[in-house]
């Protein structure tokens, strides 16, 4: 009984934290891996919606100015993700 309660709590906690950003876990993965090193992912929701140009400038700034270690392919995928879910329409 106690054990199943613990498992239930872990599931609920996992679900709650997985709700932070939009999209499927696979889609969020790159952002979750690359964009939490220096600040929380709330920054994304805080500035959204941005235009595709705005996101490109933001990601470039993270990489060029703040030295975020994100490969060019990953930057492209991250921009696709941001433009899918966090662009002004
Ligand atoms: C190497 C550290 C680092 C990494 C990694 C990083 N950032 Fe940042 N980010 C910063 C700093 C520093 C700021 C400015 C913080 C402040 O002004 O308080 C910032 C600010 C931001 C902001 C706020 C708006 C702005 O333009 O300042 C957004 C949005 C943002 N980051 C998105 C991202 C995204 C998306 C990623 C992943 C691609 C990312 N960051 C990865 C360091 C980083």
TrEMBL record:
Residues 28-84 form the Quinohemoprotein amine dehydrogenase alpha subunit haem binding domain. Pfam families: Dehyd-heme_bind (PF09098). Keywords: Signal. It comes from the Bacteria. InterPro entries: Cyt_c-like_dom_sf, QH-AmDH_asu_heme-bd_dom. Residues 1-18 form the signal peptide. GO terms for molecular function: electron transfer activity; heme binding. This is Quinohemoprotein amine dehydrogenase alpha subunit haem binding domain-containing protein. It comes from Thermocrinis albus (strain DSM 14484 / JCM 11386 / HI 11/12).
